[in-house]
UniProtKB/TrEMBL annotation:
It comes from Cinchona calisaya. It is found in: Secreted, Extracellular space, Apoplast. Residues 52-198 form the Cupin type-1 domain. Keywords: Apoplast, Disulfide bond, Manganese, Metal-binding, Secreted, Signal. GO terms for cellular component: apoplast. GO terms for molecular function: manganese ion binding. Its main location: secreted. Oxalate binds at H102, E107. This is Germin-like protein. Mn(2+) binds at H100, H102, E107, H146. PROSITE patterns: GERMIN (PS00725), PROKAR_LIPOPROTEIN (PS51257). Belongs to the germin family.
Length: 208
């Protein structure tokens, strides 16, 4: 009985000793499908677990009048492997984050200034639309199309968290019109005419 008791505690302590508290990203090593390699713990400092980039507004002087400041594993190495990340969203009046998806994560958005009209579309093509005000939170299930639009006359600010340190991003408009996919194929798959496709490619930088 005593032997079993000591064996039990030996197994517990052996398991605890093998627990890895964190995997701070090693940017000198290649990134793989599972994320970055782990930095040598001897080289880890408290600064790896602190990010100070979300206190400043992003530059919204662009086509969509919006800016996203990410704190993903690539910017915040302490997040690597922890299944979480965050970003700041700035929307100038008239600003929009076009229809997009995050293939690798569910998103949670909290509005801290202004108001934001937003929706996601389910795989059954049901639209879940709401205008959010300061303090409101909305969740977007992983992989579903969604958007955000400034719904007021003042700059809107939100913070968005993700269930991955690398949530991924694909903006639908850019996927169709900002690459070199032949225009004839874009016309066939979107039901747009040649003039519309040409116009959108010119705006977004596509060719073909």
């Amino acid at each position: 009985m005593i032997r079993l008791f000591f064996l039990f505690f030996f197994l517990i302590f052996s398991c605890e000793a093998s627990v890895q508290d964190f995997c701070v990203a090693d940017f000198t090593a290649p990134e793989g499908p599972a994320g970055y390699s782990c930095k040598n713990p001897a080289n880890v400092t408290v600064d790896d677990f602190v990010f100070s980039g979300l206190g400043k507004a992003g530059n919204t002087t662009n086509l969509i009048k919006a800016a996203v400041t990410p704190a993903f594993a690539a910017q915040f190495p302490g997040l690597n492997g922890l299944g979480i990340s965050i970003a700041r969203l700035d929307l100038a009046p008239g600003g929009v984050v076009p229809m997009h998806t995050h293939p690798g994560a569910t998103e949670l958005l909290v509005v801290v200034q202004g108001s934001i009209a937003t929706a996601f579309i389910s795989s059954a093509n049901t639209v879940y639309l709401k205008t959010l005000k300061k303090g409101d939170i909305m969740v977007y299930p992983q992989g579903l199309l969604h958007f955000q639009i400034n719904a007021g006359g003042i700059p809107a600010i939100a913070f968005v968290s993700f269930s991955s340190p690398n949530p991924g991003l694909q903006i639908t408009d850019f996927a169709f019109f900002a690459n070199n996919l032949p225009s004839i194929l874009v016309e066939k798959t979107t039901f747009l005419d040649a003039a519309q496709v040409k116009k959108l490619k010119a705006v977004l930088g596509g060719t073909g």
